[in-house]
């Protein structure tokens, strides 16, 4: 079950003027589930995104990047679940282009104005016919107040839908930011993770929008891991419709960035809280490093260690496993005698070994919580980094041993 | 249960002249199990080793390196299970030195002529008293024909003991090589893994012996992974007593290296076959790379992917997960359209997608085997690398969620 993660409430998800969403049941992998989403944008919206760095990136990732680069103004995003269209070669590229062309025909725009996204099983041919057949149903369903259904339509192994809205005052006017995301396994972002769509009614020029989505990803989706597997299909998209009449220039940039990053962080953390088989949500803070890279390397070494993750699953304060992970994180000149390890407020290790004040029952108390913070203080610099991960349970194995069946 | 791994047969383990071994039940963590091993060497033996690169390396690793460097001639190795003496700070260093000094007193040698090794739980104080109290029992048990008991005395979560002997003819004389190892979890070597002790009755000078053990580790213990966790206590030691009268010079080097590397490979593969919770033994061959680093990076990306490992556990040919792992292995200029993926003799993927000839039932047939080879042909260079790993099962989680209890 997801860790301290509530399902979104439809009434709290705010429409973003200039964006309408429609869902359909296209029977892509299974019947009786929403598996197709069309996000339609009014003319004039700007769109930016960050994508997976996986060399086996999916066909829709390649096509979406090309269509974004064409610069014709994006009018629609098309998302299907049930099939990733990854590891599908030239045939997959043709399939992704066909779905864009077919949706463009129905919406009366150019093929290059449609961005495609797919998520699901890898190395299976995309069922183009089913997707095209589902498009009219999704278009008939288009409405501004539809983020709740949209969040459900992009779920795969997710148990809980992920969606959040936020409003900020900029220049005396209200700006709305609403986002959805999906993801639960194959989560180790590198530039972005899984699928995330965030829209705002602020007006933001494309170059600035690109900086903002990169910055938001770097502080949110790029700070989470479930299993260390970087997906072939990751994308985080940021849409700015301008319909609030608020133009974001340099002076308002910080406020806008904060709003976007906060929405992205909620969506990213929701993916970890809903991590496959997760029973614990673990925040890893690495402080006092020389640079961000070494802080993140140490954080990810802890976050990816199956031994650390299974100990958290068992609520077993076998905390030497965290020291071992710190030790193999590749920081060659690390002085282990100078670092301190905390579990929440409990000092566990210092001077290269167990802290004299540490009591097993204190570690045990923290380990039993469902939200736990690991804090590593390196005492070798001034840089900090925070990552989020989950534990590793029987259910992770169960889910991934039976995903395709 | 271990994958196609038989327990060693005592009668097939050949004594190495100049080496005697003694075991004891020292009650270090549990009663009624052999947990202490003394390996005694006749005067004149040379010893070389490779050790973990973990920055949180255990106190005995630091002490063993220092004693080796002292160059006084090693007379004994002392191994305990049940406690790793890692993450134990200055107190741990003092404990390791004390055990060396106490054994040296009993054997009539200098403290620097004893090398200490520990394996077990991290961040717990070493029970020096129990170890010292167990030494007389181990010394009373010293005999040349004792490798079988020695292999059992160094086991922790291992289900099967690991030991092998080999004889080669060099210069018309018989040279014996016998080795033992232990390890099952926290297996991702970096210079060496877990504990391995190999002895030969050939005479090999220390500089050459060091090259040989490094070469053997690089082709065996450094090519395996169970869970990607690099232990704090890894060591592989190579002992040459010279008692066969065969002096290994440059001309005999290749034959001797082959014998040592073969013993090391059997011992290393045995660790994977006995990997925690393992149900499948997986050989990963990466061929046609530009250099060894990229071949190993791709191999380890596959070997560490929890998604790949759980698919193998389930015998589910969800082979797109292997493509995804290849794609995120960090080979930036990889042309995925040029590579081929095979499962045993079955061509699975080419031209960036599923091979037209691939049939799901062929993949299914191979996945059901207990020994499986994954072959990735990169077609971008002439270098190959082979790694060995195992699958990821419920039992891995079970074992590691309850290791300390």
UniProtKB/TrEMBL annotation, chains A, B:
<keyword id="KW-0012">Acyltransferase</keyword>
<keyword id="KW-0068">Autocatalytic cleavage</keyword>
<comment type="pathway">
    <text>Amino-acid biosynthesis; L-arginine biosynthesis; N(2)-acetyl-L-ornithine from L-glutamate: step 1/4.</text>
</comment>
<feature type="active site" description="Nucleophile">
    <location>
        <position position="193"/>
    </location>
</feature>
<feature type="site" description="Cleavage; by autolysis">
    <location>
        <begin position="192"/>
        <end position="193"/>
    </location>
</feature>
<comment type="similarity">
    <text>Belongs to the ArgJ family.</text>
</comment>
<dbReference type="GO" id="GO:0004042">
    <property type="term" value="F:L-glutamate N-acetyltransferase activity"/>
</dbReference>
<dbReference type="GO" id="GO:0005737">
    <property type="term" value="C:cytoplasm"/>
</dbReference>
<feature type="binding site">
    <location>
        <position position="193"/>
    </location>
    <ligand>
        <name>substrate</name>
    </ligand>
</feature>
<feature type="binding site">
    <location>
        <position position="405"/>
    </location>
    <ligand>
        <name>substrate</name>
    </ligand>
</feature>
<feature type="site" description="Involved in the stabilization of negative charge on the oxyanion by the formation of the oxyanion hole">
    <location>
        <position position="119"/>
    </location>
</feature>
<comment type="pathway">
    <text>Amino-acid biosynthesis; L-arginine biosynthesis; L-ornithine and N-acetyl-L-glutamate from L-glutamate and N(2)-acetyl-L-ornithine (cyclic): step 1/1.</text>
</comment>
<feature type="binding site">
    <location>
        <position position="400"/>
    </location>
    <ligand>
        <name>substrate</name>
    </ligand>
</feature>
<keyword id="KW-0963">Cytoplasm</keyword>
<feature type="site" description="Involved in the stabilization of negative charge on the oxyanion by the formation of the oxyanion hole">
    <location>
        <position position="120"/>
    </location>
</feature>
<dbReference type="Pfam" id="PF01960">
    <property type="entry name" value="ArgJ"/>
</dbReference>
<keyword id="KW-0028">Amino-acid biosynthesis</keyword>
<dbReference type="GO" id="GO:0004358">
    <property type="term" value="F:L-glutamate N-acetyltransferase activity, acting on acetyl-L-ornithine as donor"/>
</dbReference>
<dbReference type="InterPro" id="IPR016117">
    <property type="entry name" value="ArgJ-like_dom_sf"/>
</dbReference>
<dbReference type="GO" id="GO:0006526">
    <property type="term" value="P:L-arginine biosynthetic process"/>
</dbReference>
<comment type="function">
    <text>Catalyzes two activities which are involved in the cyclic version of arginine biosynthesis: the synthesis of N-acetylglutamate from glutamate and acetyl-CoA as the acetyl donor, and of ornithine by transacetylation between N(2)-acetylornithine and glutamate.</text>
</comment>
<comment type="subunit">
    <text>Heterotetramer of two alpha and two beta chains.</text>
</comment>
<keyword id="KW-0511">Multifunctional enzyme</keyword>
<dbReference type="InterPro" id="IPR002813">
    <property type="entry name" value="Arg_biosynth_ArgJ"/>
</dbReference>
<protein>
    <recommendedName>
        <fullName>Arginine biosynthesis bifunctional protein ArgJ</fullName>
        <ecNumber>2.3.1.35</ecNumber>
        <ecNumber>2.3.1.1</ecNumber>
    </recommendedName>
</protein>
<feature type="binding site">
    <location>
        <position position="276"/>
    </location>
    <ligand>
        <name>substrate</name>
    </ligand>
</feature>
<dbReference type="InterPro" id="IPR042195">
    <property type="entry name" value="ArgJ_beta_C"/>
</dbReference>
<keyword id="KW-0808">Transferase</keyword>
<keyword id="KW-0055">Arginine biosynthesis</keyword>
<feature type="binding site">
    <location>
        <position position="156"/>
    </location>
    <ligand>
        <name>substrate</name>
    </ligand>
</feature>
<feature type="binding site">
    <location>
        <position position="182"/>
    </location>
    <ligand>
        <name>substrate</name>
    </ligand>
</feature>
<dbReference type="GO" id="GO:0006592">
    <property type="term" value="P:ornithine biosynthetic process"/>
</dbReference>
